[in-house]
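Input/output pair, single chain:
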Amino acid sequence: MKILLTGANGYIGKRILPILLDQGHTVICCVRNKKRFSPKEISHPNLLAYEADLLDLKSLTNLPKDIDVSYYLIHSMLHGTEGFEELEKLCAKNFVHFIDQTENRQTIYLSGIANAEKLSTHLESRKQVEEILKKSKSDTTILRAGIIVGSGSASFEIIRDLVEKLAIMITPNWLLTKCQPIAIRNVIDFLTGVIGQKECLNQTFDIGGPEILSYKEMLLQYAEVRKLKRFIACLPVMTPRLSSYWLFFITSTSYNLAVNLVNSMKIEVICRPNNLADLLQIELLTYREAIEKATGKIQQQMVISSWTDALSSGILPNDKMKYIEPPTYGCYTDKKHFKIGTDVKPIVENVWALGGDRGWYYANWLWHLRGMIDKLFGGVGLNRGRRHPQEIKMGDSLDFWRVLLADKENGRLLLYAEMRLPGEAWLEFSIGRENDENYISQKAIFRPKGILGRLYWMISYPFHLFIFRGMVKGIINYKK
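Output:
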């Protein structure tokens, strides 16, 4: 089946793309910039990428017409605090104008739950897009979701930021508003499950998890999962503007997004009952289960059930490796980037020999000191070494690291720290080509847990400046 995927580089698009490819579909990706795909990704035999902008009708003329199903995953909420609804309407109208000239039989749109009498500008805009899409000659399937719980989603990252950063919260009264959160895994299940389902054509379904919770309850449940003690007091004195600034300064969100989210969070988003989950045989995850999966040790931007199961068993097909990513929101990052010569093979071999008897190429005594400190606090230390002096496989222990990804063919190694830390840490190495030159990139990522985590990063950062720089230079210059 040929599927048109708009917004393929967006939050949902990135997650649904590999699923559609894995199911054997040919996916036509409509994006504004093809360069955001990786070389290996763009070379997938069933992936066709086209640059087009739905705000520009002429740019759609080169898209293929022989498509069976289309996904409309375009949202313009980030463009500004005002006027984004006009952009959304224009995109939808241009999409319908194009899709009516194709062989498309079904359009699937992810909208927002809009059952309240008075809607925010954001939710009203989504509803207007629904009406525009319904005017298409194609059958439509509209799925309405509320708060999506998954690593990297705006709503979830705001929850995570608030709980991780603040032990005591004096919050706006809208935290008592009820909603029905849904796990990102279930969102993907619904989006892929409705393809070709006759019972879903020209229908609108609300999709949500099995629980109705207030935002305050969501924050407190997150705190319980993370074993953090938090106190929350809700006051009716904070205006929407103050609430938006509160989110903007405390969390990682932009101000534009904060304004639109605050306006939406004042409105209950609860599903109207339907049997879609039963029809598609989808097992809905509870909010706590969704939190646990989103904050698990193996963090990736593509939270997809079959892939998570494969990761936990240490088995992951090579063509899925490119989708594993450490988190980005609310993290501290130290990145080193160096040009290397034409012969990259010795560099790759040096990366694959890290740890164990070889050591870490620079200031090994400091690494051993860190290992001793880790042991004193009940951690694993450096005693585990490594399984083999040159070989690394996914799931291997590597001193006090765990191997999440070992893609030697593409020169990428991703490690997760199993030492005692007030947070979570990743260490990533990638060797590739950029602007006709070879390079090695080394990235240390730390996601702090509370105030102690931030103090830890501040104290250790001066050491990172020379240890990590020395390590990557050691990898480049080491010769047996």
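DSSP finds 15 helices and 19 strands in the chain. Confidence is low (pLDDT under 50) at residues 77-81, 297-323.
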